[in-house]
Amino acid sequence: MITNREIASSALLNEALDEVVESAVDNGFERGELAAVFRDRAAALEAEADGDGAAGVEAAGVEADGVDDGA
């Protein structure tokens, strides 16, 4: 079960990501598919950091609600 907790350090973020990956794999996601989702999310975060905001998120193939649009 993915827990709801404050992510206050890189270590906690990595633990939470481990839980996400484990849960997704347990529910049928392929690891390559997860890697693609994480790459899209990373691109969206980079775009936001560069000041592109929601437009950067959309350009990275991730809907503003965080759901991959399959682009």
Structure description:
Residues 49-71 are annotated as: Disordered. With 71 residues, this protein is mainly alpha-helical. It has a domain at 31-71. Helix content is 61%, strand content 0%. It contains three helices and no strands. It is flat and about 35 Å long. The model has no long low-confidence stretch (mean pLDDT 81).
Strand content range: under 5%
Distance linking N and C termini: 28 Å
| Radius of gyration over C-alpha positions, nearest whole angstrom | 13 Å
Instruction: Count all strands and give the number.
Output: 0
Look at the structure and give the mean pLDDT: 81
Number of helices, where a helix is a run of at least 4 consecutive DSSP H or I residues: 3
Overall SS class? mainly alpha
Q: Which regions are unreliable across 5 or more consecutive residues at pLDDT < 50?
A: none
**Judging from the principal axes of the Cα atoms, what is the shape?**
flat
Q: Order of SSEs, N→C?
A: HHH
Biggest sheet descriptor:
none
Helical residue percent? 55-70%
Quickly list its features.
71 residues; mainly alpha; 3 helices; 61% helix
Short description:
This protein is an all-alpha fold and 71 residues long. The protein is flat, with a radius of gyration of 13 Å.
Mind sketching the topology for me?
Layout: H1 10-26, H2 31-49, H3 53-59
